[in-house]
Amino acid sequence: MNGGHMQIGEVASRTELSLRTIRHYEDTGLVVPSARSQGGFRLYTEADVARLMVVRRMKPLGFTLDEMRALLEATDRLDLGDELSADEREQLLERVRGFERAARQRVADLRTRLARAEEFAATLADRIENATARP
Hints:
mainly alpha, single chain, 3-stranded antiparallel sheet
């Protein structure tokens, strides 16, 4: 689209999110289209796509919509830069650090679960091999 705007279909393709999911995130206030076309179509910018990517990356880690909203609010405020006091900036940074720690822990938990799942699949493969090797 001209002016750096994209319609929802292009955003869905780029983010690998369904149209329904993007609309749901709009309904919950996680992302709001930057504009509307004269025909009423949602129009998104690169910043909107980046915001949706944050949400998309948080979802498989089990973050709730409220947690996603809290992180996005903190990063939005941090993006204000010079408009923040040093104390406010540090509080926001600490909030983001908390999310980073939580994300790392959730990734570690997922790795553990994946390793257990792979062990289980290997055990089943061994059982199948042993059973088919018998006459």
